[in-house]
Design a protein that fits this description.
The protein has about 150 residues and is an alpha/beta fold. It has six helices and five strands; from the N terminus they run βαβαβαβαβαα. Strands 2-1-3-5-4 form a five-stranded parallel beta sheet, sandwiched between helices. Helix 4 (about 95-105) links the parallel strand 4 (about 90) and strand 5. Helix 4 runs parallel beside helix 5. About 35% of the residues are buried. The model has no long low-confidence stretch (mean pLDDT about 95). Bound molecules: D-ribose. D-ribose (RB5) binds next to helix 3.
Length: about 150
């Protein structure tokens, strides 16, 4: 079980995820060591790679423990973030999936679909994601193989 107070976390979204991002910041910012907001900063229409690339690049370099990526479906932000070799962005829409993304996949970015989940579901998933440890064991070699392109 991780102690949230020690975690450096990054968050980024597009216009569809803006309101969920702001509410997650309000609830979690004081409970974390740090929470860096990579934007977007309004509901004006924008292209999700413009905020997700900078955040995913920072996660890739080990500058944060975890990232949070939010768009309408969660797919665009996941596809963008997963271009980076040290990023494992998991698209989650249920608490159990967020838990397994940490336990089995050692995910380091939680991607969420703002148009298909409630704020309460997002908060519960984030709490689970940030406090659940990777199980290791048989999952280590599987996770290691993810970045071995053929
Ligand atoms: C924006 O309308 C929407 O396409 C975007 O938020 C996301 O769902 C893309 O994957």
């Amino acid at each position: 079980m991780k102690d949230m107070e020690t975690l450096s976390v990054a968050i980024a979204c597009d216009h569809a995820g803006y309101e969920m991002k702001e509410e997650l910041k309000r609830v979690f910012e004081s409970r974390l060591f740090s929470l860096k907001d990579f934007g977007t900063y309004s509901t004006d229409s924008m292209d999700y790679p413009d905020t997700i690339h900078p955040m995913a690049s920072a996660i890739n370099k080990g500058q944060f423990d975890f990232g949070i990526a939010i768009c309408g479906t969660g797919n665009g932000v996941s596809m963008t973030a997963n271009k980076y070799p040290n990023v494992r962005a998991a698209l989650c829409w249920k608490d159990e999936i967020a838990k397994l993304a940490r336990q089995h996949n050692d995910a380091n970015i939680l991607s969420m679909p703002a148009r298909f989940i409630s704020q309460a579901e997002a908060e519960q998933m984030l709490e689970t994601f940030l406090t659940t440890d990777f199980e290791g064991g048989r999952h280590i070699q599987r996770v290691d193989k993810i970045s071995k392109l053929q």
